[in-house]
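Write out this protein's structure.
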Amino acid sequence: MKKLMALLLSVVMVLSLAACGGGDKGGSGSGEKKGDGKLTVNIWDNGQQKGLQEICDLYTKETGVKVDVQVITWDQYWTLLSAGAQGGEMPDVFWMHSNEVQKYMENGILLDLTDKIAKSEKVDLSKYPAELVEMYKSEGKNYAVPKDIDTIALWYNKKIFDECGIKYPDDTWTWDTYYDVAKEITEKGKGKFFGTDMASTNNQDGYYNMIYSMGGYVINDDKTKSGYDDPNTVKAMEYLGKLIKDCMPEANIISETGTDALFTSGKVAMITQGSWMVAAFRDNEYSAENADIAVLPKDAATGKRTTIYNGLGWAASAKTDMPEEAWGLIEWLGSEDMQKKQAELGVTMSAWEGTSDAWVKSVENFNLQAHLDMMNPDVAEMIIRPYSRSTIAWEDYARGDGFRPAWADPAKMADQCKAVAEQMNAALAEEKQ
């Protein structure tokens, strides 16, 4: 009851924000009444809209059911979805994320897909990564079908490397190599460009990978304890502090401009980034011409090369007026054929086992194989993105007030690790009550 009340209070706050000018996006995702026999699908990535609409159009051709794929920005997405959960209109089908899914599953907001999946001839849960399937289950019931899988790799600017006379990254690199090269590039750039950049918000695509590679952890296996005060985690974060101090633009520049924008404008030579960014980098004229990809470095001490991975899930509203059609679309999107189609169109890596080979060939000017190699156990270790029953309760603190002081002054990194661990442990204890 305590958790339910907390959720309802947060939703009331969201409704207040929405009433203050959330913007009119149209369609059922914004609270507009439908009644038109059309499925509304909400996502938050412009780069994926075209390909997903094409796949949905194939569903329309097959069934006659029309589908409208709408893009809502990340922040507005969860505002609108929370408002819909409290009594407004929700999209019929939408993406779910590990950070948010638990409260939606526990409070009857998502359509229970358990029996439908069991009877399906198109969806086979054994073909998806088991940890992704488990992420979208609650009390033994399935509430989403995995959409995709992602890995993190090292993106670099060939033009800057050439200008500095440095060989491109390869699989021999360690994190020590990364630091040394980033520092050399920064010194040669003399303010024109820098070796790398990362913000406190770049956890899955940034420092989480360093933490696990160097033997640390963010959350323990039974999700009861923070790992931010673990000595190996502190070591990894202090390594990051060296990068911040010696190899990056000032924190305010990173915050105001954005890590990806700095990379795609030639201001930084390297970033660690997720496979979900391929479409954006492909469609940017500068990065399309100058960027390429290598596997992440490994740690010299542990010998481990680690990628944090995650995957979105296709879910449906429990209140949809078209439950069978909504499930039919999810089943279509989650089938082997359409997972292959998603990869072929370059939307993103697909969740169905063995369907992402086509994705590697979808953009000729990038070495997308590097992202796929990060799934190879002979190359790297895959760690599911750290999460708990209420991830955002501790993750938002770490991404904001927790680590922001250390970006301004890297000497504070060890102290901030302790502060984040204390807050996170308190949040995890609250989850058990």
